[in-house]
Fold this protein.
Amino acid sequence: MDSGKTRKSTLSVWGGETGRFTNGAVTSPVVHSVAFAYDDLDEWHAVATGKSEGFIYSRNTNPTVQVLEEKTRVLESGEAATSFSTGMGAISNTLFALLGPGKRVVSIKDTYGGASKIFLEFLPAYNVKVHLCDTTDHEQIEAEIAKGCDLVYLETPTNPTLKVVDIKRLSTAAKKVGAVTVVDNTFASPINQNPLALGADLVIHSATKFLCGHSDAMGGLLCGKKELVEKVFRYREINGASLQAEPAYLIARGMKTLELRIERQNTSALRIAQYLKVHKKGKRCFLSRIGNTSGSQYCEKSDVRVWRCVKFCIGWRL
Ligand SMILES: Cc1ncc(COP(=O)(O)O)c(C=O)c1O
């Protein structure tokens, strides 16, 4: 199954699950096996060297995990996808696989705290130059990119400030200097925003959040250009931050209702913001407005209780 004209609600259910599973199972079995057996050494060798399809060892690839990767790939219309034990696993493996001593990365000040720590502490310790720009100052970000860099890292909307950046504009600037654009799409989800369609090379998800949707499993996903995804996969399979079958199954099961949940959240977030806008105790409310052409931000008055709403009401489609 590929993205094409198929609706996202259908892709959420059937993505990665169109084939026949063992014993005719209609949903993906949870394959706990760590190793996989073959009749003879030649068969094993063909799989191990990538000449035939199959599985060798679950730190590298696993049938249940592969279903989740494929589901995410079709929802983001990427060429390839791979997975990690957590969202931070996805972020750190991507950054460390694609950067190294002497490389330069441009990002924004409002990235998720864990990513921010990597930019401020871990990467500089490996002699990677990091420049963090004011998140909403697109001219400053473009100017920093134009000075030359290897990677542009964006998160939009940001957690928890819900600021929005223009992926199209900044990925165009990145392309001009030959830099790779990576976007953390966790808060938007593939239902509201597809960064690859806006010019990004790679998209990251903390599957722990909206993809899973039930707070009962952790995971991270990366999809986009095949060559780049493979480079990160090669790093992760040795680094070892691999996703296990059980959480992969739970996330894939949660994703079957992704479109329904996100559409409902969009409607609720807008209604809450409209209510708080006219509330007499109103202070500040941030409601992200996500569109495929512009990176706009929408701020409204509300009282402080909105932060609880904001945590799970991320925005609505233009
Ligand atoms: C936007 C964003 N990216 C990445 C992460 C890290 O994900 P995880 O907790 O699965 O490691 C989070 C966690 O809150 C997040 O909000």
In short: The longest helix spans residues 258-277. The beta strands are 80-84, 104-108, 129-133, 151-155, 180-184, 202-206, 220-224, 285-290, 297-300, 315-317. The first strand starts at residue 80 and ends at 84.
